[in-house]
Design brief:
Order of helices and strands of chain A: HHHHEEHHHHHHH
Helix content of chain C: over 70%
Number of helices of chain A: 11
Radius of gyration of chain C: 19 Å
Chains: A mainly alpha (about 290), B alpha/beta (about 240), C mainly alpha (about 325)
Strand order of the largest sheet of chain C: 1-4
Strand content of chain A: under 5%
Strand content of chain C: under 5%
Number of helices of chain C: 15
Largest interface: A-C, 40 and 43 residues
Number of strands of chain C: 4
Distance between the termini of chain A: 44 Å
Strand order of the largest sheet of chain A: 1-2
Oligomer: heterotrimer
Distance between the termini of chain C: 28 Å
Order of helices and strands of chain C: HHHHHEEEHHHHHEHHHHH
Amino acid sequence: MGLSFDLLINALIAGILLGGIYPAVTIGVSISFGILDIVNIAHPAFIILGSYIAYIVNTRLGIDPIVISIAMLPVFYFLGAGVYQVYYESFERRGQEALRGLSFFFGLLFVTEVMLILVFGVDYRYVEAPYIGPSWRLGVMDFPLRMLVPCVVALALFAALELFLSYTFVGRAISAVAQDQLALRLMGASPIRIKRIAFGISIATAAVAGALLIIIQPVEPSVGREYIGRVFAICVLGGLGSRPGTVIAAMLLGIIESFTATFYGPSWAPAVAFGVLLLTLAFRPAGLLGR
Amino acid sequence: MARPLLEVTGLSKRFGGFVALDGIDLTVAEGERVGLIGPNGSGKSTLVNCICGTLANESGTVRFDGEAVDGLLTHERTRRGMARSFQLPRPFATLTVADNLRVPLLYTVNARPGVALSPAALDARCAELLQLVALADKAAQLPRDLTQVEMRKLELARAMAAEPKLLIADESMAGLSQSEVDDIVTLLIRLNERGITIVLIEHIMRAVMRFSQRLIVLVSGKKIADGRPEAVIRDPEVERAYLGQ
Amino acid sequence: MRTRVFLLISIAVAAVVFFGARTVNNDYVFFAGYTVLQFIVLATAWNILGGYTGYVNFGSAAFFALGAYATVFFHKFYPLPIPLLIVVGAVVSGIVGLGMGYLTLRLRGAFFAIATLALAVVLQTLVVNWDYVGGSRGAYIIRPNDIAVIGPYIQYLFLLMLALVVIALTIARGIERSQLGYGFATIRDDELAAEASGVPTLRLKLVATTLSGALMGMAGAPFPYYIGYLQPSSAFGLEYAVNSIAMPMIGGTTSWVGPLIGAVLLGSLQQIATVTISSAVNLLIVGLLLVAFVIIAPNGIIGLVQGWTRGRAK
């Protein structure tokens, strides 16, 4: 009885920590899908790219992965802005997002994964940092630092973006661009430029998310595809218009995944997120707190 | 008054916190020519969408031809005789002009019980409709090759192709010249003489006054006037809300 | 050309292909050709839902693998001749297509696409955990070496796949010219206007997903016999998802010819590349071509040819 209580409580803690990290992974899609209505299924590819960049720099120069990711923010921002420009010119302007835009992102996802396989192979890669390994013990409760630190960083990132979107001019313009492009134009802001900035920010978050990802688990190229399910499951479950909803949904998913892995084994893990996604789409597509 | 063809009772529609339609009651009798006017954003298109089933209203009922249609999908309502044209034309971009008209013929007219048009008959009706809106020479072209005006006519023709009992024309005359407006009004009056009930939603007052036997005014989601056109336009509230500016 | 005539002509062409292949005294032609034919069926099936109706399916592998695993199941449970297994594959995948469509097609196209991706992963996880069909270890299917009348077994499989190609192309072409084809096109062009014109959009979309899924299941049914050893990672392999999208998009999505061209070109290219370079580079090329075509030549090779002939006519 005591043994399974240990297991239970630590599965819960792992789930909550995981759930705290997931918002970093999903905030990008909350912006691109929730606000800009762009179905960027290649978002996990950018995250994995971030993971591998963190891996290379960490292995060669020993710099902390989170620090690396912050240095990469501007690079990823411009990458995102560039991708949006291509997307806009080729698809959004011609009204072709439905079929061709989706195929475009799918192609990007696929090409990224295959290139990573060619360059790095399919072995798992991991990073080194002082907080990977030790845990913080509180009675029977075990808080692995390799999860606690990313959790804190993820929530900080989420909070920072919330503040940005609510209190700065650009941030508010981004929140508004989904609803009223005409009003934006009247205010002198070009909707295309605002969208480009927003998408750039969305991809920039992937840099951080990637670093956090490779801290909590070893990474190999196909991990990106697993995260598509998690990312969209959280966004849809949380309700597309509601960012606080994604935090709640992330927690829920983290806990469900943790319990499934602990009590049913890891081979069921990939199905959890995708299963949640399918069920949500089938029965409550507006999500828990959605519009 | 002839029997009612369309009866809308207590129709309300909200988008989040915004009330687009607030308890609309209106009736259209068989064979009538009704005009519906109101400022931009007053809910005219939302009303059309709710009547046709494109949007779901929160409360109220819609009865068409004696039957409550509230649970029915749009295509089912179209097959029962309700047709509408869209305010911003929505042609089928990859189909030719003629094929655009073929779709409602195949899927609405031919889908009605007891109707089985032969391919030759379908072609004939297509040609007839194209003649009616003066698009016969563009039959084999794609919608993107049409002018704005021609697209509006195609939009109207497509609604007419469904051989409706009730035709709701949503601002089909925007951008047309005076003579083109007159042509469309004449066309609509002729259709009405053949027995089609028509609701005309428009801003062009000349057309509305010439066409309507009854005029309804919608402002901010509420109906503020409903009666003979000459009386309605002299109503002070209508003047203030819509015409006076 | 009426559909009946087309069917007869394609059967004739198929016969020429088959007997032509037999004159080359090398079974490799049949092994490689089988893969290309399989892709023609998958690309055509994908295009019915994607190109004609406008709904993207990222989970083609799921429907393909369902057909394959239905075969594995029956191989253990009660062996059936392959043509019957093809029917079983069609039914199983068709039903799953119908079910998934019913759950998700009332939402936007983007949600449907994401749901197909989710379906593929969920199904793969279920299969990996199902020991009866081999689980993650995989399942062996011993195939006979020869078969009566035809000779080497691989030629029999090749012939079956040829038959499926004829069926798939005839169906696709038949749809294009029919009322159903108009209905699909209106859903793709403007679903709201389609409904307003009397098109029962949900019903037609369900027809498209069911048909598309069924054809993919049919393509998957003989696969275990072709490959001999079936693992979830190969049945659910990403190359099926990518190729079934890339081939129609590169060939051209507006007609039955597009997927055929795309599959023959890309399929042959990949057979050559896999042997000469590596299979990963081969997939990379497909992915890059997909992205390039989608940006530069959105109407595919058909579109390019049409533009070129129109340019010359001027």
